[in-house]
Write a structure and sequence with these properties.
Layout: H1 2-11, H2 13-32, E1 39-40, E2 43-44, H3 47-67, H4 74-100, H5 112-141, H6 148-174, E3 178-179, E4 198-199, H7 201-208, H8 210-224, H9 231-256
Antiparallel strand pairs: 1-2, 3-4
Length: 265
């Protein structure tokens, strides 16, 4: 793990440091949470920011790993690294501020201040998506000397990440992530996915973390099938990706139908 973190820093210092800032914030919130008895949607006020800090930290480190493969154009790489680092820092600041106020960050338009916070977060996500789209284009138009299955894992991971972000628009339109019930009903331990209604966060999370899982699958297949032709490992990766998309689509359909992943009465 130490070697991986060191490599991430060498690949992109800006995104690596931005990721470490999220981990530092996570540690601080872990220290604060036990002394704060306030709840938001039935959970400790700091549970949601904790999950987001971990997720955003992993996201920043993942992009730091990928961006080293596309050193050109320099202005584009600079735009992506600094843009993503800044917008994710602002996004997390809004989430933490709302938690400190003891209220929700997403879908909250109860006051003009809450609405501005939610609007700011939405703008940051749109900018981040555009920057990821730019990175995806660079991965298609440049010649990158890595195993083809690994390369396609990165490309598909970035693409599914963008699709998952688009699903977030459905949650915004719904003004909630739960379908059939209000947010804050009974949920699974840790993740808090609804056990009584559909929950759009499940497919959303699976899509977002395709950014890590598909490249890992492509890399593993490349090692496993290194003695085969270039096309065979890519074919295996495509099969894995199709299954992954099918599962995510099924989870999305289930949530939109108002049915929980695991039901408890």
């Amino acid at each position: 793990m130490r070697e991986i973190l060191t490599e991430i820093y060498h690949r992109d210092k800006v995104l690596a440091i931005a990721g470490w800032m999220q981990i530092l914030l996570l540690v601080v919130m872990l220290c604060v949470a036990p002394f704060d008895s306030r709840t938001v949607t039935g959970l400790n006020a700091w549970v949601k920011p904790l999950k987001f800090a971990a997720s955003i930290g992993l996201y920043l480190w993942t992009l730091a790993w990928f961006i080293a493969y596309v050193p050109k154009p320099r202005w584009g790489v600079q735009l992506i690294r600094w843009g993503v680092a800044i917008v994710m820092t602002i996004e997390m600041a809004c989430i933490v501020l709302q938690a400190a106020r003891g209220t929700t960050s997403h879908y909250n338009v109860a006051t003009s201040f809450d609405a501005r916070m939610f609007q700011t977060m939405g703008i940051m996500i749109v900018i981040n998506s555009l920057l990821v789209l730019m990175l995806l284009i660079l991965f298609f138009i440049q010649r990158i000397e890595i195993p083809r299955a690994y390369l396609w894992g990165i490309r598909l991971g970035l693409f599914l990440f963008l699709l998952a972000g688009a699903e977030g628009g459905i949650m915004i339109a719904n003004r909630a992530h739960t379908v059939g019930l209000a947010d804050g009903t009974a949920g699974l331990p840790l993740v808090n996915w609804s056990t009584r209604g559909g929950d759009l966060r499940i497919a959303h999370a699976l899509g977002l973390h395709a950014l890590q899982l598909l490249p890992l699958a492509g890399y593993a297949i490349s090692l496993w099938k290194r003695n085969l032709s270039q096309n065979r490992p890519v074919a295996y990766l495509m099969v894995f990706a199709l299954i992954y998309v099918a599962v995510a689509a099924l989870l999305f359909w289930q949530a939109m139908s108002g049915r929980p992943l695991i039901a408890f009465t």
